[in-house]
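Open question from group meeting: does this chain pack into something compact, or does most of it stay loose? Before anyone orders reagents, we agreed to write out a predicted structure and look at it together. Recording both the input and the output here so the notebook holds the full record.
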Amino acid sequence: MKIKRFLAKNMREAIRMVREEQGPDAVILSNHRVADGVEVVAATDYDAALMQQAIRRAAPPEPPSPPSRVRDDAEPPPPMPPPPSPELQQLRQELGGMRKMLESQMAGQAWRELREQPEKLRALQAMIQLGIEPRLAREIIGELPAAADAERARFLPLGLLTRRIPVLPNDVVLDGGVIALVGPTGAGKTTTIAKLAARYAERHGTRDLALVSTDHFRVGAQEQLFTYGRLLGVPVQTAAGADELRLVLSRLADRKLVLIDTAGFGPRDARLQAQAAIKGHGMQNWLVLSATTQAADLDAVIRRYAPAAPSACIVTKLDETLRIGGVLSAAIHHHLPIAYCCDGQRVPEDIDAARANQLVLRATQLARSHPARIDDATLALQFGAVHVAQ
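Structure tokens returned:
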């Protein structure tokens, strides 16, 4: 284990020096302010050295091997690894506590440096006002130049946010295909199916369009889709399970656009796995996300629907929320392109192809219309440095 002391003007420069000299696996043991900046003590091979030492000290001697015995010409099962010794468990706990302490110290140092840059602090506050997830907000603020003036600090973060939002490049439903909408109960899948169908029919007519329902769980779900089908003059078929869906898609192979309405389950519903298995057949799965859902729940939904391998998402209920930063953060974090946005119940008016700049504009307008008070203590809590908020 090699330990070295570093002196730098600030914590960011100190971390850069540590990485350049000791590599990305170096561990910071301590840091504190000095007259000319900060002093950091870092080490290489820190975890590995302590771990190996503890293992050698705590490992029991190996018992002698028993005489070999052949039983029914089968290989004996491999021995179970011994449980970690109390010393090793304690060491792991101490290392975990040290990591948390160092992360807290670094967050505190970064927070103190941020408070000395009022333009960046205001930009961070603006990102939180939009509802942007704190980690993403900090990343965006970290890209601002150190000497950003008030004008750049006001508009540059919005541009950086716009650049991060993944969207599909055009009005993709007009190109046709087989598209299934998946997502939790109440996200608005059936109404969105009708909007997409009407959007296609306005451009290409209804001759090459068909709707399919696989929702046999929710009362009235198929009736709702049949009602939309009659209003649009579009045939609606049903399929229960992957086998029936395969047959239905074979019968509809001459249709240019087939839209599939699926059952909506909560993220913890065991039937979700069976629903997610309905894929293939040249079909795209688009995940429908409600803008009214909290950021943590959105993250859980996207992870839960990962087996369906969604290639895009549709954001619904933009008209029912005061902040859309949560759903934008989720799409950015999971690299899930946004195809369309819905902001009402009207068919087909209340749907638009997603545009990153329009989404940021919508988020900004909502924040201005319904501002929230965000003080330093709140920002410090979001920053992970609440203990230095005073």
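Observations to bring back to the group:
The longest helix spans residues 86-115.
DSSP finds 14 helices and eleven strands in the chain.
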